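Can't paste images in this forum, so I'm doing it all in text. The chain is below; anyone willing to post the predicted structure tokens underneath?
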Amino acid sequence: MKYQFMKDNSKIFPVKKMATVLKVSRSCYYAWLNSGPSAHEIRDRGLRVEITRIFEEYRKLYGSPRIYKELQGTKYSCSRSRVARLMRENDLVARQKRRFKVTTDSSHDYPVSPNLVNQNFSVGSINECWVSDITYIDTMEGWLYLCSILDLFSRRVVGWSMASHIRSELAIDALNMAFMHREPAEGLIFHSDRGIQYASKAFRKKLESYKMIQSMSRKGNCWDNAPAESFFSTLKMEEVYHKKYRTKEEARQSIFEYIEVFYNRQRSHSFLDFTSPVKYEELRLQKVA
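Text version of the structure:
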């Protein structure tokens, strides 16, 4: 807006010169200046405050699509383009993802299970298919390894474990946690890469005891386990990369809070129509009931 530009630069350039360059009337400019803010400007002020509040509340991780979704149904409902404009004007930029390193070792002589998922990551019910992966967390005390298990239906982390080693017990502990919390019926498909932790005799025996069916990605194909790897990418971008962990215990606490407090219960997921995994499950169960 020309008048706004003149107001913002009135201490730098003479009003007369700006009016001439912009081809506007000085009298009209002063009339606008004395009229007070418009309804649109007042609305923008309120929106800026609310957008900033949401941006801060969600750890400066939300871009305009998620903030737009949070505003829907409130007195601040507006278009997505308006949210994007106000975020640009206030320099609110969501953190960007970084690439991460795969840690599982598929060079072994253990049996390999067939790929039953085949990149079909849309399932119709809870506890139909779980996906799992392992990654590392850097601390000043050394590596901390994390194994997580996600329910494909809601992308909820249903089981996880952390340890200073990367043996099969790491994956077994995560599996035990997931089974204890969810108690799935027999026939659930458990999908992972071909890592030695998942191919080991001990892990296969545990799957059998829970009456689960094992599925594995094709060799060297990261897309076959994309949801599990995507979760790690999100975890590292939103939490790990922005911290310097002095101890493994400090990293444990940070990751526990991220998974159980933020990711599962608060963070909106684009795949779930911008609801959290826990909320998505609750809504779907209500529809079934």
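Residues 39-57 form the longest helix (19 residues). The CA atoms of residues 190 and 214 lie 5 Å apart.
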